[in-house]
Write a structure and sequence with these properties.
The complex is a heterotrimer of chains A (331), B (326) and C (314). Chain A has 13 helices and twelve strands. Chain A is α/β, with parallel strands linked by helices and 331 residues long. Helix content of chain C is 72%, strand content 0%. Mean pLDDT of chain C is 80; it is low at 1-9. At the A-C interface, helix 1 of A face helix 1 of C. Chain A: Keywords: ATP-binding, Cell membrane, Membrane, Nucleotide-binding, Transport.
């Protein structure tokens, strides 16, 4: 049985004169201890998916319909009180920018202790002991002293480690990490990812890693969702998607990776931009940028269908495959 | 911390120096001390002799030096009208004004924080809309009009509260006279301090509300929700603490504004404070008293600004006191 | 969080900006009513000489026998004095029309002075930067830490004592505009400076520099248009504040003389009679003042919501 099961999740934003759909029927399952990546450009709805799981979408956004089943509870339709027992306790979240995630006027100790005390009846002293132990787990030097410090006294990498420690405080079953390294120095990024991977593996914690970096996904995760304009357009085992992407968009993403380019050659970019959520074209949202577009793509939204080891939402995937096969044969 | 204090004291000294210069040039130009001393009937020679004796023919700098030296000793001249040392006259009126400000401050703090927080947390509730509606009306009514309205309603029509004066005051610590120890004193201070608060209260509610709403949108508040904390802790610890930082700074500036508004409230309620006396002094061209008022008010400004800065530095951990005030 | 909209080109944004204002205005009854009331007040003060049955500045027209007559609808009121008369027998309706005119003129002119000073200083500080910038901003801090009203009261009290009240009264309007105008420039300066600093980083200013346009031209053609919406929002609130400041000063006898009353001096002149039952001399000008300031504030609030400019806080 899966740990988390998201079904037909729709998230909308009420703007001044219209309502735009940010997530358009997202469904996926996540098993215990499984690590999954969500990939896409900014604005594709990856972060919103992460926040929607914890029902943390704030005004003017709202969950319009769908279900987020976690341990027999539907997080999309439950009381705030019940949600509080899940948030930070059984599902923890790591935010994008450690510089703004910690409260600047509270000490690290206060911010860790309050998290523990929100879910367990612990004395401050006991809570601090747990906090120190967790800080040690994320390789923070002199953890006892850190408790007295304020966020601004620590570097970005250090703060992100502390945020990871806070996420681990209550031994959650699932961690949602929303681009945990984009705001950090390139040199620290790999360290943080490695730490996250190590902690998830050793504690058997499930992970949802939200990122735009396919390279990171291939190192960290077992399964991948590719999102575009609020929809999942391809999902499957990470290895399969990286080695043999089916959707033209995913193919474009992989071709755009620097590793795929010979030195001196220009990076291959996908032409155009992702449409604004208020101006998504009819039919397949990717059709204006796609080289395989046919009439049907402009009218009908493709469903996710199984193609070999992965699921793809593309009308032309069969023909595309035939084309590439014949190309290969002729080559 | 020490370096910060030195810096702050130095700044205060500069401000006080500027105020004393202004005060002195007022004294120099406003009114003729000779006329006050001897009247019009004295011959020109005697006048000139008196001028020399009084040092009125000395250079500006020498005269200022004399003025400053005396001022340091607390000697700001003698009030023409009261025939008493000007500083003493002012200091006798000081408690009345400060108690008015104190009363207003209590009303403002007591109401603005809960109302500001509530309207930020529940911006769409009917109560919030009512508060916001009243606050914009409150901002639009000048303080003297509120005061007149209050007198009209509570003193003239309902006859339940007195309309002027301080009523029974009790003297404590030697010279300080207080309204807060008698029932009559409480009754007298209620309307004036409510009127004084009426102009600041809506400003503070709106300020706290907008700062709080911004804080509630911040990533660290989102993170606090994601940690599963109780709403009360998020609102009153995570958000409010950060909200109050800018409020403290603005509040410091507003204390100065409040001193100005005491002149208006004191005039309407004939409150025997410094502001009321200042206007009388202006009408009587009582120069030493005007100068004394300026210096005392300047001093209050400097002291409150310093205190507010210090409190800000103590509350906000990201401010190193040593670096502040740069 | 993901971006919900892309950034369309400049022209399109401006078009949307305009239609957005119009759209929001049509949907906001408070804004519509406020603007209507404001226009009504502004127009009636503009045509005050035509609307007023008496000339409130002409003492020969007052008759002491007509003094303290209540409004027409009260017992003892007379039809020729709609809102009654004041203690000198002056028609209150005429006095209010002219008084509102004085209040509005002072409010708008004072804010014009503020804006001119503040915008110039802000542009210079932001554009030149460095030491000039920090000096000017420090000056703004000091200026802000002293209350405008306090400075104005002291300044006016002293100039009244210095010049004598006759000379003072003659130039009262001018002095009020200058005092209220000079004291409040920092708000503009800070906002404009912030905009300049933000705009300076954008490419088109660089491009303009590369094209060797002079600093003045860059500021006027490129930076100023981008500061328009915050300036607009500040100005609305500032006009309301200036009117209140003027009224407060006049109430203290430091503003417009009773012979050329503003709303503040009218209220002040009636205050002495409120205990004897002549409530209208204070109350009616008071209501006009509050309504005038209120509609301006409401328009300001609405503008702030619609334009949502980045205002300098501090």
């Amino acid at each position: 049985m899966s740990l988390l099961s998201v079904r037909d999740l729709v998230v909308k934003f009420a703007m001044r004169d219209q309502t735009v759909t940010a997530l358009n029927g997202i469904s996926f399952d996540l098993n215990r201890g499984e690590r999954m990546g969500i990939v896409g450009e900014s604005g594709a709805g990856k972060s919103i998916t992460g926040f929607a799981i914890l029902n943390l979408i704030s005004r003017p956004g709202f969950i319009d319909s769908g279900h987020v089943m976690f341990d027999g509870m539907d997080l999309a339709h439950t009381s705030d009180k019940a949600l509080r027992t899940i948030r930070g306790n059984r599902i923890a979240m790591i935010f994008q920018d450690p510089m703004v995630t910690l409260n600047p006027v509270l000490t690290i100790g206060q911010q860790m202790v309050e998290t523990l005390q929100a879910h367990r009846s612990l004395t401050r002293r006991d809570a601090e002991k747990i906090a120190v132990a967790k800080l040690r787990e994320v390789y923070i030097p002199a953890p006892e002293e850190r408790l007295q410090q304020y966020p601004h006294e620590l570097s970005g990498g250090m703060r992100q480690r502390i945020i990871i420690a806070i996420a681990l405080l209550l031994d959650p079953q699932l961690i949602i990490a929303d681009e945990p390294t984009t705001a950090l120095d390139v040199t620290i990024q790999a360290d943080i990812m490695e730490l996250l991977l190590e902690l998830c593996q050793s504690n058997n914690v499930s992970l949802i890693l939200i990122t735009h970096d396919l390279g990171v996904v291939s190192q960290m995760t077992e399964r991948t969702l590719v999102m575009y304009a609020g929809r999942i357009i391809e999902s499957g085992r990470t290895r399969a998607i990286i080695n043999d992407p089916q959707h033209p968009y995913t193919q474009g993403l992989i071709k755009a990776l620097p590793q795929q380019t010979l030195p001196g050659e220009r990076l291959k970019q996908i032409p155009g931009n992702m449409p604004a959520l208020s101006a998504i074209p009819p039919g397949c949202p990717f059709n204006p940028r796609c080289e395989y577009t046919v009439d049907r793509c402009r009218t009908t939204i493709p469903e996710l269908v199984r193609v070999g080891p992965v699921e793809v939402a593309c009308h032309e995937v069969q023909r595309m495959n035939r084309d590439t096969e014949t190309e290969e044969q002729t080559a | 911390m020490f370096a910060y204090l030195v810096k702050r004291v130095f700044q205060a000294a500069v401000v006080m120096f500027v105020i004393s210069l202004i005060s002195f040039s007022i004294q120099d130009n406003l009114g003729d001390p000779l006329r006050e001393l001897v009247g019009q009937s004295v011959s020109e020679e005697v006048r000139e002799q008196l001028r020399d004796e009084l040092g009125l023919n000395d250079s500006f700098l020498v005269q200022y030096g004399r003025f400053a030296k005396k001022a340091m000793r607390g000697d700001l001249g003698t009030s023409y009208f009261f025939k008493e040392p000007a500083l003493e006259v002012i200091l006798k009126k000081l408690p009345a004004t400060l108690e008015l400000v104190l009363g207003a401050t209590f009303i403002i703090i007591g109401l603005s924080v809960p109302l500001g927080v509530f309207t930020a947390i529940r911006p769409h509730s009917i109560f919030s809309r009512v508060i916001m509606g009243f606050s914009i009306i409150g901002i639009s009514v000048p303080v003297f009009l509120t005061a007149i309205l209050m007198i009209f309603v509570f003193s003239v029509e309902m006859r339940i509260l007195p309309s002027y004066g301080r009523g029974d005051v009790v003297h404590v610590f030697g010279y300080w006279s207080t309204n807060f120890l008698t029932w009559d004193g409480w009754k007298h201070i209620l309307l004036p301090s409510a009127a004084l608060a009426s102009i600041m209260l809506p400003l503070f509610i709106r300020l706290i509300r907008s700062e709080m709403m911004e804080t509630l949108q911040s990533e660290y508040v989102r993170f606090a929700w994601a940690k599963g904390l109780r709403p009360r802790r998020i609102w009153f610890v995570h958000a409010l603490k950060n909200t109050l930082l800018p409020v403290i700074t603005v509040g410091g500036v507003q204390i100065g504004t409040m001193v100005a508004y005491t002149i208006l409230t004191e005039t309407v309620f004939q409150w025997p404070g410094m502001g009321f006396m200042f206007l009388e002094a202006v009408n009587r061209v009582d120069t030493p008293l005007i100068v004394a008022y300026l210096i005392v008010v300047g001093f209050i400004f400097v002291v409150t600004n310093t205190i507010v800065d210090l409190i800000y530095g103590l509350v906000n951990p990201t401010v190193k006191l040593a670096r502040m005030g740069a | 969080m993901s971006n919900l909209s892309t950034n369309p080109e400049k022209t399109r944004m401006q078009k949307m900006w305009h239609s957005n204002i119009a759209y929001s205005f049509r949907r906001n009854p408070v804004a519509i009513v406020s603007l209507a009331v404001f226009l009504l007040i502004a127009l009636s003060t503009l045509f005050a000489p035509l609307l007023a049955p008496f000339d409130p500045y002409d003492m020969t027209q007052f008759n002491i026998l007509d003094s303290e007559l209540p409004p027409a609808w009260e017992q003892g009121g007379e039809a020729r004095f709609v809102f009654g008369t004041d203690a000198q027998g002056r028609d209150l309706w005429s006095a209010i029309l002219y008084g509102t005119r004085v209040s509005l003129i002072i409010g708008i002119c004072a804010v014009a002075v503020q804006a001119l000073l503040g915008i110039t200083i802000g542009l210079v500080a932001g554009y030149v930067g460095g030491r000039v910038d920090s000096l000017l901003m420090r000056l703004a801090d000091v200026q802000l830490s002293f209350s405008t009203l306090m400075v104005a009261i002291i300044f006016l009290a002293i100039s009244q004592a210095l010049f004598g009240s006759e000379t003072f009264n003659e130039y009262a309007l001018f002095i009020l505009v200058i005092v209220i105008g000079v004291a409040e420039w920092p708000q503009y300066a800070r906002t404009v400076r912030a905009t300049v600093l933000a705009e300076k980083r954008k490419e088109y200013v660089d491009a303009a520099r590369v094209l060797a346009f002079g600093p003045l031209r860059i500021m006027i053609k490129h930076i100023l248009p981008n500061s328009i919406s915050p300036i607009f929002v500040i100005s609305t609130v500032q006009v309301a504040n200036a009117i209140i400041s003027e009224a407060s000063l006049s109430f203290l006898g430091l503003g417009m003389p009773v012979s050329q009353p503003s709303l503040g001096s009218l209220i002040s002149s009636g205050f002495d009679y409120i205990f004897s039952g002549s409530w209208w001399i204070t109350t009616i000008p008071g209501i006009v003042l509050v309504v005038l300031v209120l509609v301006i504030n409401l328009l300001g609030d609405w503008l702030r919501d619609v334009l949502n400019p980045k205002l300098y806080k501090g």
